[in-house]
């Protein structure tokens, strides 16, 4: 997928402890591969100028080619610290896409629609809340770098933001515990657009 004539970087957040999962969530197997690699591969299908992978200390994750790995020593304090660390590591980008490593079904098409937004763009969830993936212009980077603890970008005063719903709600499926992964593995989802609702 070709991007507009701006340099967009991606920050993939993979520093969570996965405590509700019992640990090791992002390296748990989904369709024969570690869970986190599905989000990484989706990002690789987009022409991002930079790819930043944020991990925690002593992470078992093995990085992939053409990703810059950033270790966040404050990861246990919450996701906000990982957003700040990842955005701080970007060097030449005009925009930053924030993605979560436990969302394996997000499609390149959805990321493309977020990239097309002119300003701040969040994903619109079915309950009308805003979340990741989300895309931010460079003028917002200093604010993102102030995030601490569990404060996400939604806690910031960003003014008007565009809300972009994915074509299929199942793209927003995230894995919190082992039951989520069992459901995902049992679902008939050969691609990133087929519904999970048919699964038992």
From TrEMBL:
Native organism: Qipengyuania aurantiaca
Skewed-composition ranges (Basic and acidic residues): 172-183
Protein name: Nucleotidyltransferase family protein
Secretion signal span: none
Claim: Magnesium is one of the keywords in the record: yes
InterPro entries from the UniProt entry: MobA-like_NTP_Trfase, Nucleotide-diphossugar_trans
Keyword annotations from UniProtKB, A to Z: Magnesium
UniProt feature, compositional bias: Polar residues: 186-200
Region Disordered: start-end pairs: 172-200
Xref: Pfam families: NTP_transf_3 (PF12804)
Domain MobA-like NTP transferase: 10-156
